[in-house]
Design goal:
The structure is a homodimer.
Chain A (H helix, E strand, L loop, with lengths): L1 H24 L3 H6 L3 E9 L8 H23 L4 H13 L20 E7 L5 E7 L5 H11 L4 E3 H10 L7 H4 L2 H13 L25 E6 L5 E7 L9 E2 L9 E4 L3 E7 L1 H6 L2 H12 L3 H16 L3 E7 L4 E5 L3 E8 L4 E6 L2
Parallel strand pairs in A: 3-4
Antiparallel strand pairs in A: 1-5, 1-12, 2-3, 2-6, 5-6, 8-9, 9-10, 10-11, 12-13
Helix pairs in contact in A: 3-4, 4-5, 10-11
Amino acid sequence: MKHFITFLLIGFILTTLINCSKEQSKPNSSTIEEIPFAIVIHGGAGTIKKEFISPEKEKEITNKLQEALDAGYAVLKKGGASLDAVQAAINVMENSPLFNAGKGAVFNSAGKNEMDASIMDGKTLNAGAVAGVQNIKNPINVARLVMDSIKHVMLSGKGAELFAKKYGVEFEEDAYFYNERRWNSLIKMKEKNGEKIQIKSTKNLSTNYVDEHKFGTVGAVAMDKNGNIAAATSTGGMTNKKFNRIGDSPIIGAGTYANNTTCGISSTGTGEYFIRTLAAHETSSLIQYKGYSLKKALHEVIFNEIEPLGGDGGMIGLDKNGVVAWDFNTEGMYRGYKRSTGENVVKLYQE
Amino acid sequence: MKHFITFLLIGFILTTLINCSKEQSKPNSSTIEEIPFAIVIHGGAGTIKKEFISPEKEKEITNKLQEALDAGYAVLKKGGASLDAVQAAINVMENSPLFNAGKGAVFNSAGKNEMDASIMDGKTLNAGAVAGVQNIKNPINVARLVMDSIKHVMLSGKGAELFAKKYGVEFEEDAYFYNERRWNSLIKMKEKNGEKIQIKSTKNLSTNYVDEHKFGTVGAVAMDKNGNIAAATSTGGMTNKKFNRIGDSPIIGAGTYANNTTCGISSTGTGEYFIRTLAAHETSSLIQYKGYSLKKALHEVIFNEIEPLGGDGGMIGLDKNGVVAWDFNTEGMYRGYKRSTGENVVKLYQE
């Protein structure tokens, strides 16, 4: 009996030890659940309402957003860097006439396309940006080259184009960027402002369709399998913009911010208010110093900091745990995300 | 007896009321002590060591910093706005060849002066900035005009110059900005980099004196009698800069930030690191969300955020209580402050 009890006791201790060891070597599934790889994108915020968009157009936009998500996700899935993923997603949107970036960039006051872009690496806090560049097919690629190749963070205008040429970046003729609805928007805005129209399109205008979608900036934030966060933003800026205005998109901390210890953010909206509130960096600070969730921080910045000043727009974000969030105070925002957990969401309107 | 008591009672009530009223109308001296009007300025940070600067040059620099402080202080003393005070102080430094801003701006790679400036109003969070402007006598005045006159925050290059012309801003010929030691610095840097020297000065070089002072950006932060904080920064950027590089000086949140609820900040140094850390806004966030003093926040940002990335430079600041502080990780920083409490300090070297 004594032996039996001793055996029982030893058996119990051994079982407990084995179980303990198993428990420790088993991958912590909740941690994996918390840190998936993921990508979140936006294609601009503004007066996006179901009644303004035809079912065909809705499908076209949804498909293009999905294509951008898939391009970024593919990079992440094969173990690629989040920097490459956000660039791949943005390239898809820059190459489409549907968004105000790259091919679809709006026209400035002189009837030219004048684009801004920026990218940031949340691991190293490296960043690159270009402002006011013309005829560059993919401005985000030049921002990436600035980050990777030289000590500067931000280049502008003709100097940035010279840099892009030196690095063999793809340029396109004006005709590539021509977009009838963008051109009509410009003419309409000039008429509304009572401005003399001294510019001429190289193509004939055939419709009166005008783009009422205010801010079509595109952006992406991703986290890769190594937990590195990257954020990027690309835009054509504002229709009829003058004086080589620079908006928030190429400004690190306003339009774009990434920091592995907090989150990655890309903004879209009335850029001046995002500059004055340092919207992207402010979101990160609220997470870092106030312990806010990404969702709460985004809401705070948009509704309690930007909106009281008179600004509108939206932000997308992804925190260090791979949690995705967005918020906006406009009628809608083209947006979507895809995570390694299987979630895949694309949305256009307010809910 | 009844009347006597009534009189006593009325007397007591009246005396109490009079005393109360006196108490209220008496200026609260401790509040004045806590919120004095004040201005703090910098004329750049870098390799500023006593052994490199002749007693005559030291006197010249000290006098010019004092002149800038006095110009700003005079505005504050007569009840003027902090925005006007920082502009007045910066104009003095922009009009001197001693600092890398306005008249003393360094040369870019093409042998031209290419300047940046920004200003921010801590009361409204309004801001204005120009990047990469040439031949403008006082770039800070254009930044102010951007803030006051149009809805944009940031203009750049030729567009910003067009805007300045439209508003009647003073322009100067290239010769006005010519500065022998700046020119020698450019030639020396090009030689060091092994670059072909294809640029020519319009004037003969007579000495080999080269400016080793790395970052001569100028800046000012002030608080006026109404407790409003303003901050401003103006610079010629980096010697031999290429590709229309934009540094931190015209970037709101990096080179300049002002918020009545926290502080005002102006930065100088290797701009890229101030952009990546959002140095000015980060200082404000540490005060707002972590309860740091201005002094502690400045130290944290410079030594624990900028320096680990490889950056150097300095910042000046003034908090909502009128407390002045500065910090830098370089050998020296041209700096000074003047407060309504009677303090007047001008310093060049590390202590």
